[in-house]
Specification:
Blueprint: E1 2-3, E2 12-15, E3 18-28, E4 36-43, E5 49-55, E6 59-62, E7 65-76, E8 79-83, E9 89-93, H1 94-97, E10 109-115, E11 118-123, E12 127-135, E13 148-153, E14 158-162, E15 170-174, E16 180-184
Antiparallel strand pairs: 1-6, 2-3, 2-6, 3-4, 4-5, 7-8, 7-10, 8-9, 10-11, 12-13, 12-15, 13-14, 15-16
Length: about 190
C-alpha cells in the first residue's frame, strides 16, 4: 500500500477498482487542520481526468499495471494482434485503439498498457510515415491558401493533403489528429 507521502507524478494507483495515474500532486499544510495532498488523476481506461484530495495518513492501493513495447502484426476480426520481442502475441479489441487504428501498418511499434493482464490502452507513436495509394491530381490554377484534397493512405485512412502531393508519394501523418505534416522522401 502507498502512503500519501508516496504520491508523486506518474504513480499508478487503483481507486474504486479502476486504474489511475497521478498527473499532478501538491502537498498542502494549512495553518489550521490536517495536511492533505491535492491531486489530478487520469483514468487509464477512459482517459478522464479528475481532481481528488487525499488526507495525510490515507492509504492508496498500487495498480497492477504493465507497459510493454509491442509491434503490430495483423488485424483479427474485431481486434488487432501485436507481438513483443519474445514472440508473445496479444489480441487487442478495436475499441481500445479507437480512431488511431486507421494508422496501423505492419511492424509499427506501440506501447500497450495492461491492467490485470488485460490491454486497456495503446499509445501510438506521435507520427507515422505512410504511402498515398490514391489521390486526385490538383486543379491547375487553384492557388488559394490552404487548399487541400482527400488522399487515401496505404492503411485505408483518408486524410486531407495539399494540392502538390501526388499518388505514390510518402507523407508524415500526426496520429493524434490525423493531420498531414509533411512530404517524405522514402527511397
Amino acid at each position: 500500500m502507498y502512503d500519501t507521502s508516496d504520491i508523486r507524478k506518474g504513480l499508478k494507483i487503483v481507486l474504486d477498482g479502476k486504474p489511475y495515474t497521478i498527473v499532478e500532486a501538491q502537498f498542502v499544510k494549512p495553518g489550521k487542520g490536517q495536511a492533505f495532498t491535492r491531486t489530478r488523476i487520469k483514468n487509464l481506461q477512459t482517459g478522464a481526468v479528475i481532481d481528488r484530495t487525499f488526507r495525510s495518513g490515507d492509504k492508496l492501493e498500487p495498480a497492477d499495471v504493465q507497459v510493454r513495447d509491442m509491434s503490430f502484426i495483423y488485424p483479427d476480426g474485431d481486434g488487432y494482434v501485436f507481438m513483443d520481442e519474445s514472440g508473445d502475441q496479444v489480441s487487442v479489441p478495436a475499441d481500445v485503439l479507437g480512431e488511431s487504428s486507421q494508422f496501423l501498418s505492419d511492424g509499427l511499434a506501440v506501447e500497450i498498457v495492461f491492467f490485470k493482464g488485460e490491454a486497456i490502452d495503446v499509445t501510438m507513436p506521435a507520427h507515422v510515415v505512410l504511402e498515398i495509394t490514391h489521390c486526385d491530381p490538383g486543379v491547375r490554377g487553384d492557388t488559394a491558401s490552404n487548399v487541400t484534397k482527400p488522399a487515401t493512405l496505404s492503411t485505408g485512412a483518408v486524410i486531407q493533403v495539399p494540392l502538390f502531393v501526388n499518388e505514390n508519394e510518402w507523407v508524415k501523418v500526426d496520429t493524434r489528429t490525423g493531420a498531414y505534416m509533411e512530404r517524405v522522401n522514402k527511397r
